[in-house]
């Protein structure tokens, strides 16, 4: 925790990660947590979450990152976790056209369960390091523009754009109308510092 601040002064923001199974949601979150990339993860069952702490614009932010299962049979269970979300990251795999086509359905689900029109939404294409790309950057950007959401590509394997994507999303959540301060009693010992060597900001709308 930064000097001069306590958990009682922190602003809690809820960020939900959604997308089809196998697109790399858990890998992205693990990368952002500072853990090394692993080629395989056990699929998330239901919902898991991590807590992060960062100092942004003079505020201590406690970021609750909810990792939802992409399997269809868990959707009914996970819809309750949309409630109260300040931000949503929708992930697709740039080598899997099915995961990209499914984004429209994920957006419909967000519209159905998220009543707050100030929620920040980021569309993120994962595995941008792959030579097996079948969805171009421009296709992802075009869909994001059409739906009125932010857009970037990342690589959980190489760590590209991960920190920048979460930082930019958090900035938009902070500036969104209706964000409220909420008290909490969770502990977190990890401070976030954006250290990506790439130039990701050009990727955001």
TrEMBL record:
**Which Pfam families does this one have?**
Ras
Question: Which InterPro entries does the protein's record reference?
Answer: P-loop_NTPase (IPR027417), Rab (IPR050227), Small_GTP-bd (IPR005225), Small_GTPase (IPR001806)
Give UniProt keywords alphabetically.
Answer: GTP-binding, Lipoprotein, Nucleotide-binding
Alphabetized CDD domains for the sequence: Rab
Q: Cite the PROSITE patterns for this sequence.
A: RAB, RAS, RHO
Whether Nucleotide-binding counts among this entry's keywords is: yes
Any idea which GO molecular function terms this record carries? GTP binding; GTPase activity
Q: Is Electron transport there in the keyword field? A: no
> What protein is this chain from?
Uncharacterized protein
């Amino acid at each position: 925790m930064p000097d001069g601040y306590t958990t009682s002064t922190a602003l809690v923001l809820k960020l939900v990660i959604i997308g089809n199974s196998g697109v790399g949601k858990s890998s992205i979150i693990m990368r952002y947590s500072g853990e090394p990339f692993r080629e395989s993860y056990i699929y998330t069952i239901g919902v898991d979450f991590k807590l992060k702490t960062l100092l942004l614009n003079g505020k201590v932010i406690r970021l609750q990152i909810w990792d939802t299962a992409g399997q269809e049979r868990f959707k009914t269970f996970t819809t309750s976790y949309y409630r109260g979300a300040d931000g949503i990251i929708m992930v697709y795999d740039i080598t899997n056209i099915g995961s990209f086509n499914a984004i429209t359905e994920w957006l419909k689900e967000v519209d159905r369960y998220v009543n707050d029109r100030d929620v920040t939404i980021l569309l993120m294409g994962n595995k941008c390091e792959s030579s097996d790309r079948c969805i171009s950057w421009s296709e992802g950007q075009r869909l994001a523009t059409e739906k009125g959401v932010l857009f970037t590509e990342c690589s959980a394997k190489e760590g590209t754009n991960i920190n920048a994507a979460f930082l930019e999303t958090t900035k938009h959540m902070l500036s969104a109308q209706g964000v409220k301060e909420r008290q909490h009693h969770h502990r977190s010992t990890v401070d976030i510092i954006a250290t990506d060597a790439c130039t990701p900001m050009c990727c955001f709308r």
